[in-house]
Design brief:
By secondary structure, the protein is α/β, with parallel strands linked by helices. It contains 10 helices and 11 strands. Strands 7-6-3-8-9-10 form a 6-stranded parallel sheet, with helices on both faces. It has a 3-stranded antiparallel sheet with strand order 2-1-11. Strands 4-5 form a two-stranded antiparallel sheet. Helix 2 crosses helix 4.
């Protein structure tokens, strides 16, 4: 079994599972890019009034470049956000059936128009850290609320896709975070056991997911928008960023 240093603690493990947004890449920049694409698409399929209502419903203010990091755009899987977005159409006079159809079309159009890496920018030092872990024989995986395809394509554009043994997105499982489904899927694909795995993420839901899957250690990072005190409630270790970890 391999060993990694996380902060000032040594952990024996075979597999390190990472969240993506806020852990490896800047969540704020990615969400702004995503929000602009989706807002433009909502406008295309409706009216300006509906697009403004959509902003409030999903938790974004594009005029001020502000994101509610506890809102649907930030934390909801895409399939949930599409239904939430449909509310903007419904409240503007469409039937619920029409509202869902328009929301799906708008989101599909936005996805089609965006180009990899979809606003993803790696935090400084992340690529070097991932390579060091991989070179020492550790298996690496991703458990992301983003879709599988967008995660894979963004990592290809960033040239880090080959570092991961498994990538699981929100559309690969029935239940998203904090359900353990993503980690269970990763464990099945890698053949690893829960007590051989470490979960690294920036949110409470990442820590809860790790706990629910019974992984060996949950590591919280402060590169997202969750305060240290909240991560410490569920995380075994809290560090400033992913770069404060390396293999032995």
């Amino acid at each position: 079994m391999g060993r990694i240093i996380v902060g000032n603690k040594t952990v024996e493990c075979e597999l390190v599972i990472f969240d993506k947004n806020g852990t490896l890449v800047s969540q704020h920049l990615l969400l702004l890019e995503l929000a602009r694409a989706r807002q433009n698409s909502v406008k295309k399929f409706s009216r300006k009034k509906i697009a403004e209502l959509w902003e409030r419903i999903v938790g974004v203010d594009l005029k001020r470049n502000k994101i509610d990091h506890g809102g649907p755009l930030a934390i909801a899987p895409r399939r949930e956000e599409v239904l939430i977005a449909a509310t903007a159409f419904y409240l503007s006079g469409y039937s619920w059936s029409e509202a869902k159809q328009l929301a799906r079309k708008a989101y599909d159009e936005a996805d089609y128009c965006m180009q990899p890496p979809y606003g993803s920018v790696l935090f400084e030092g992340v690529e070097k850290t991932l390579k060091q872990l991989k070179e020492h024989g550790l298996r690496l995986a991703i458990a992301s609320n983003d879709t599988h395809n967008r995660t894979v394509e963004s990592f290809k554009a960033l040239r880090i896709d080959l570092l991961f043994d498994v990538i699981v997105g929100s559309d690969d499982v029935l239940n998203g975070k904090p359900s353990p489904d993503m980690i269970i899927e990763i464990l099945e694909r890698t053949g690893c056991k829960p007590d051989e795995a470490v979960m690294v993420g920036d949110s409470v839901s990442d820590m809860q997911m790790g706990r629910n899957a019974k992984v060996k250690v949950c590591v919280g990072v402060l590169t997202g928008f969750t305060p240290r005190e909240k991560l410490e409630q569920l995380g075994d270790i809290v560090i400033t960023s992913v770069v404060e970890s390396h293999a032995l």
